[in-house]
Amino acid sequence: MGARMNENVILLGAPRSGTSLLTSLLHNPPSFVCLSEPLQIDTLTEQANSPQEFVDGLMAFIAKTRSDILAGIPIDNRIDPKTGALAENYATRVEKGSEGWAMGSGFQWEAQALPIPYSGFHLLIKRNAPFVAVIEHLVKRDDVTVIGMLRDPVATILSWRSLDLPISHGHLHAAERVSAELRTLVEEPDLLVRQVKILNWIFGRVVTYLSETMIVCYEDLMECGENAVIPMGLTFPKPLSSLRSKNASQYYDHSESTHIVDTIRQYGSHIMSFQGGRYAPPS
């Protein structure tokens, strides 16, 4: 990886690790345009016969998207209906009386015409597990910069288990279509063990193929704001002083934390290798 950030940027990580938030923070047209999990990525995972074919399709999609933006063609994105900005969180909760908290959508698809940028603008595409599944192919390219994001593993799994998403049931369907290794992992019958194995797979691939300087830590971003370790060339168009961590969220069943830590110790070797780092579970 050279010292200069490419015009094309890939952001990947674990689901519920803060990648949607980071994408919304970086989105600053016309100089920095971010696409948050475009639907075309799922189409590519369905059509590709191999990881390399998926990457080839991804790069063709990036090239077409750049061309469309420069031509003034509106681009579909996940927009927060309350603010009109890029959505920070796809899943929101709505209080529902004695039934507790029900999940709602924190975004709507909207085609937006962006200010036409100069030809060398940065285009960031964010998608989590499918990009993790092909990370070794992405980092070999000289026309993209790959950035990863990780979050405390216990909080990540607690978030998974507090919602009704595919990963809440131990699946990452789009990535499973690309990765034979992941398809094997999801055969594990115990849900928590399966979730830990999936997160360990994500951690292992991110920390194997990306240097520390290319990994954003959710906790650092929450606590340090603009002073967090941010990969080269990334700047934020607005102050980050209002950011607050959701690791202690009221929606999480924190009584599960000890059991999650024990399961990580047994099945999460890649996570545990960071025992002295920010991402490690509590001792």
Explain this structure.
- By secondary structure, the chain is an alpha/beta fold.
- The chain has one domain.
- Helices cover 38% and strands 16% of the residues.
- The protein contains 12 helices and 9 strands.
- Strands 2-7-1-8-9 form a 5-stranded parallel beta sheet. The chain has a two-stranded antiparallel sheet with strand order 3-6.
- Helix 9 crosses helix 11.
Main attributes of the structure:
283 residues; alpha/beta
Strand adjacency order, main sheet: 2-7-1-8-9
Q: Which structural class do the helices and strands define?
A: alpha/beta
Specify the helix fraction band. 25-40%
Task: For the record, give the distance between the C-alpha atoms at the N and C termini, rounded to a whole number.
Answer: 34 Å
Domain module tally: 1
Q: pLDDT under 50 segments (min length 5)?
A: none
Give the ordered list of helices and strands. Answer: EHEHHEEEEEHHEHHHHEHHH
Q: How would you sum up the global shape?
A: globular
According to DSSP, the number of beta strands is: 9
Overall pLDDT, averaged? 89
Portion in beta strands: 15-25%
What Rg is obtained from the alpha carbons, in whole angstroms? 18 Å
The major sheet is characterized as: 5 strands, parallel
Number of helices: 12
